[in-house]
From TrEMBL:
It comes from Anaerotalea alkaliphila. This is Glycerate kinase. GO terms for molecular function: glycerate kinase activity. Belongs to the glycerate kinase type-1 family. Pfam families: Gly_kinase. Keywords: Kinase, Transferase. The lineage of its organism: Bacteria, Bacillati, Bacillota, Clostridia, Eubacteriales. One of its GO terms (biological process) is organic acid phosphorylation.
Length: 381
């Protein structure tokens, strides 16, 4: 029997690789003859770099880049085993958690550090990029990133603007001729699990601005700034940027990647499944186990376990979901590819205790699953 374990991380506790290893230990304790294949997974958010590096036996790269407020910082990205693919989580250098509550101000933050990371990767020979857009602190439309890559943004007098949202209201022209020519030989796949446009009622500023520190007044200013930016950039490249689904992700960074760098905006879990090659492991499997820290009704909206379950069902495989906690509405998952769901807690306990014992509890869950399967086989005899 072959069991594929394709879980996301249990955030704050175990990486995706460690989750799979713990479940596999439990399975082997119950039945050493069972073959287990651990395929670390992610959905484009936190943990994507680690999962993809682990799954492809790549490596991590440290680089000095500017944080959201322009301070020197150390960021990390992944280099996959092919030596030509870089995986970058924007949150690693411009993430909201990098700023204190007092520092959070999307009028001042910049995506410049992302451009620096891309340049570093190109210097190392990378030609393919996978970008995770979740968790940013910015609302500059990707101006900072594009400036780092060689673009020029000017006011009416031709003066260069600083790469921050507050400057965009004065934007009158954009010169893309200075972009690093290696960008046009590279490909970009962007993990984007939202459909928000750059402007409008469901745009970057109005939906995400408040959580990044913007009050009502600043939200309106940011909205006008991005309108000006999208209009000027659209005129520059000859395209309407206001209707791009996902363009508002990461404070408009989605527009910059799509419109200027030619990126495809895709569901994160689909990118990860494709690059890691999940489905080739499923072809001769008999069971799939997936999971993440919490599973509930929201799991069906682009989360890793649902993406794994969809692939498993293409091969007619039963799917078991394991979570640190199951939401009250988790039963809806039975109609979306899951055959069984298990929470790992073996007694009433606080979240802190469950997180601290995740490895032990996952191992026990893996063992119990196999015991249940074996019992079922005996009953059927």
């Amino acid at each position: 029997m072959k069991i594929v374990i394709a879980s996301d991380s249990f955030k704050g506790s175990l990486s995706a690789k460690e989750v799979g290893e713990a479940i596999a230990r439990g399975i082997k304790k119950s039945s050493p003859s069972i073959e287990t294949v651990n395929v670390p997974m992610a959905d484009g958010g936190e943990g994507t770099v680690s999962a993809m590096v682990d799954a492809t036996k790549g490596c991590f790269v440290e680089v000095e880049a500017l944080d959201p407020l322009g301070r020197k910082a150390t960021a990390v990205y992944g280099l996959l085993s092919d030596g030509e693919t870089a995986v970058i989580e924007v949150a690693s250098v411009i993430g909201l958690p990098l700023l204190s509550l007092e520092e959070r101000d999307p009028d001042r933050t910049s995506t410049y550090g992302i451009g620096e990371m891309i340049l570093d990767a190109m210097e190392r020979g990378c030609k393919r990029f996978i970008i995770g857009l979740g968790g940013s602190s910015t609302n500059d439309g990707g101006v900072g990133m594009l400036k780092a890559l060689g673009a020029r943004f000017c006011d009416q007098k031709g003066n260069a603007l600083e790469p921050r949202a507050r400057e965009l209201k004065n934007l009158r022209s954009i010169d893309l001729s200075g972009l690093d020519p290696r960008l046009f030989e590279a490909s970009f796949r962007v993990a984007c699990d939202v459909e928000n446009t750059i402007c409008g009622p469901q745009g970057a500023s109005k939906i995400f601005g408040p959580q990044k520190g913007a009050d009502d007044s600043l939200v309106l200013q940011l909205e006008e700034a991005l309108k000006q930016y999208a209009a000027v950039l659209g005129e520059t490249i000859g395209s309407n940027l206001f209707e791009i689904k996902g363009g508002g992700a990461a404070g408009g960074l989605g527009v910059a990647f799509h419109a200027v760098l030619g990126a495809e905006l895709e569901r994160g879990v689909e990118i990860v499944k494709d690059v890691i090659g999940l489905e080739r492991h499923l072809e001769d499997a008999q069971l799939v186990i997936t999971g993440e820290g919490r599973m509930d009704g929201q799991t069906v909206f682009g989360k890793t376990p649902h993406g794994v379950a969809r692939s498993a069902k293409k091969y007619g495989l039963p799917v078991i979901g394991i979570a640190g906690g199951l939401g009250a509405d988790a039963d809806v998952l039975y109609g979306h590819g899951f055959d069984a769901l298990f929470g790992i807690a073996d007694a009433p306990m606080r979240l802190e205790e469950s997180m601290g014992r995740s490895g032990e509890l996952l191992e026990k869950a893996g063992r119990n699953i196999v015991q249940l399967i074996q019992m079922n086989l005996e009953v059927e005899k």
